[in-house]
Design goal:
Blueprint lengths: L1 H19 L13 E3 L4 H4 L12 H6 L13 H18 L5 H18 L1 H10 L1 H8 L3 H7 L1 H4 L6 E4 L6 H4 L10 E5 L16 H14 L6 E7 L5 H4 L14 H18 L4 E4 L4 H11 L5 E3 H20 L12 E4 L3 H15 L7 H4 L6 E5 L2 E2 L32 H8 L3 E4 L9 H7 L8 E4 L11 H7 L5 E4 L6 E2 L5 E2 L1 E3 L6 H11 L6 H14 L2 H5 L10 H18 L11 H6 L2 H10 L9 E3 L2
Helix pairs in contact: 1-4, 5-6, 6-11, 11-21, 15-16, 15-22, 18-19, 21-24, 22-24, 24-26
Length: 617
């Protein structure tokens, strides 16, 4: 029986390997020789060059590897199959173990491959992205960050700390790569919904850049994860003997900004064309740094702008699910739980999207008083009567007038708001697991929408506001559900499928970064971000929307990213922000049709195959 299963698996792997490589139109997978400046064990210890047992005999002779490897030469397909079989064995051997134990075991086996053989690692990741994304990215990456000091085995990326002030301009040259295209940086202050994890937040940039390689085809030799360690206010970490970061409280105010300023200047000095993605900064610094740098450098904040773009695509899909035209988005009633950087990013982008709707020619047609959002934080409904109201929230606070719902007061509970507003959409970015209780979801059953939409977007899974089972049970089988972390679909009473859509940023940030890179954008504009979101929203067919499918399968991520990247590049050209990239100048980009741009983006994606190695001596 096991032999039959293994045979079936081998056949599946052969089919996968034969169909997963890029088509001829997407560029050839044949590579010219790669010149290496190493020999012998130095090559075996370098994961970029190491092929393990796949070095052919001629290369073993050329590179001084004879006798350093077992004599059998394995094909790439055999190595691939060997790893997949090991992974399945691990799954079998860990059945019945706690989910956290299993997830970390899976992360370890993938991480060991990453440390040893990057070509095989990324091929496995690309071919199996739907299965492995939850391991290298959310939700497992949260668990990895919580335990990173204990899991640490070898450095990956760079660390700039408060102790390095005045040295960063020279430190940046310690990184060996001559070219860096993509940087993801965090200060560890708000990792997912887990809070301040200090230096252990480095797991987020590492995971995000693995997604960039798998989804956008960014060359892994040209990516750089970065940790800005300015201290931590997490006493548990400060008391942990294994903690690897600075043992001091976080810098604040001008001291903090001075560190980030110096880092950004150092990066720009060495790699002026690199895209910098800010990730998991606490709210005050997320907005401050975005406004401080967005017009000086080519950068964006994924929590503020990426989350907003994915949420907007879902919100537009929810309008389509109701059988209404997209222009009716301006009439939707939306309750947002969470007024942090992600929640406010969604609100701002949704408001801007309304103003871009056909027929809405100026702000006055909707009016600044027009507010279809009800925003709640830990203190309940936010109104203009709240003392010390954050300026970023003012335009979304409930006020007074004909649009207001009677008897909804400052600090009203979520249940009260849902019962009285009867919203079309309930969107959670609270970081509070289970906050969409049975009572809240039953109240959503009385929504004014024929297909109430519930978005539980907080990560990781333990922080999701509710589960799809809860939604289809308490709201009804006509509901539409989406979440930030992956859940399984639900079998409904009539045998149909209740779709657990994943509204995850990985649908957008790889395309935003790739489109900005290939267009040579000077900076990343709101128009480029809106183009990315609208592209994602249009990707799903009407038939799929009617079934409750708002987002495509993660397994199509490279195709999605090519489309999104092309939309971003075209928007950069339209706004005269594009300076071109390598062999394509702005004039050529402008002359490309939409399909030509998609083809161009797809051709530029890196794909993992073994290159012949030649020593330079």
């Amino acid at each position: 029986m096991l032999r039959h299963a293994a045979a079936r698996r081998s056949a599946q792997i052969r089919r996968l390997l034969s169909t997963s490589a890029p088509s001829a139109g997407a560029g050839s997978t044949l590579r010219g020789p790669c010149i290496v400046h190493k020999r012998g064990t130095d090559i075996l210890h370098d994961p970029w060059y190491n092929k393990d047992t796949a070095f052919p005999l001629t290369e073993r002779d050329r590179l001084g590897l004879r006798g350093l490897l077992p004599p059998r030469v394995m094909s790439f397909e055999q190595q691939y199959e060997r790893f997949i079989n090991s992974y399945h064995s691990l799954e079998h051997n860990t059945k019945g173990e706690p989910e956290s134990v299993v997830s970390l075991a899976k992360w370890r086996i993938l991480n060991r491959l990453h440390d040893r053989n990057e070509t095989l690692y990324y091929r496995v990741l690309i071919d199996n992205i739907k299965d492995f994304a939850p391991i290298i990215y959310t939700p497992t990456v949260g668990l990895v960050c919580e335990n990173y000091s204990g899991l640490f085995r070898r450095p990956r990326g760079m660390y700039f700390s408060a102790k390095d002030k005045g040295e960063m301009m020279s430190m940046i040259y310690n990184w060996p790569a001559e070219t860096v295209d993509m940087i993801v940086v965090t200060d560890g202050s708000r990792i997912l919904g887990l809070g301040d994890l200090g230096v252990q937040g480095i797991g987020i940039p590492i995971g995000k850049l693995d997604v960039y390689v798998a989804a956008a085809g960014i060359n892994p030799q040209k990516v750089l994860p970065i940790m800005l360690d300015v201290g931590t206010n997490n006493q548990k970490l400060l008391d942990d003997k294994l903690y690897l970061g600075l043992r001091q409280p976080r810098l604040e105010g001008e001291e903090y900004l001075a560190v980030v300023d110096e880092f950004m200047e150092a990066v720009h000095a060495r790699w002026p064309k690199a895209i910098v993605q800010f990730e998991d900064f606490q709210m005050k610094w997320a907005f401050e740094t975005l406004q401080r740098y967005r017009n000086r450098f080519c950068m964006f904040n994924d929590d503020v702008q990426g989350t907003a773009g994915v949420a907007l695509a879902g919100l537009l899909g929810a309008v389509r699910a109701q059988g209404r035209p997209l222009t009716d988005f301006t009439k939707q009633k939306i309750v947002v739980v969470g007024a942090g950087s992600a929640g406010l990013g969604v609100l701002n982008m949704a408001k801007h999207a309304m103003l871009r709707m056909p027929g809405i020619h100026k702000i006055g047609e909707l009016g600044e008083g027009h507010n279809q959002f009800w925003v709640l934080d830990k203190d309940g409904l936010i109104t203009k009567g709240r003392k010390g109201l954050d300026p970023a929230v003012v335009r979304f606070a409930r006020g007074f007038g004909p649009e207001e719902v009677e008897d909804l007061h400052e600090g009203a509970s979520l249940v009260e708001v849902v019962k009285k507003v009867k919203p079309h959409v309930l969107l959670g970015l609270s970081g509070v697991g289970g906050i969409f209780t049975e009572e809240v979801l039953k109240a959503m059953k009385e929504s004014d929408s024929p297909c109430p939409a519930i978005f539980a977007m907080s990560n990781p899974t333990t922080k999701a506001e509710c589960t799809p089972e809860d939604v289809f049970k308490h709201v009804g089988e006509n509901a539409v559900f989406a979440s930030g972390s992956p859940f399984s679909n639900v079998t409904l009473s009539n045998g149909r499928k209740g779709y657990a859509n994943q509204a995850n940023n990985m649908y957008l940030f790889p395309g935003i970064g790739l489109g900005a890179l290939l267009s040579g954008a000077r900076h990343i504009s709101d128009g480029m971000l809106h183009a990315a979101s609208e592209c994602l929203a249009s990707y799903i067919t009407d038939d799929a929307i009617r079934k409750g499918i708002l987002f495509p399968s993660i397994s199509s991520i490279r195709h999605i990213t090519a489309r999104v990247g092309a939309a971003v590049a075209r928007a950069a050209v339209d706004e005269d922000l594009a300076e071109g990239c390598s062999d394509v100048d702005p004039r050529e980009l402008r002359s490309m049709s939409e399909s030509d741009t998609v083809d161009y983006v797809a051709r530029k994606m890196w794909y993992p195959v073994y290159s012949p190695l030649v020593n330079d001596k």
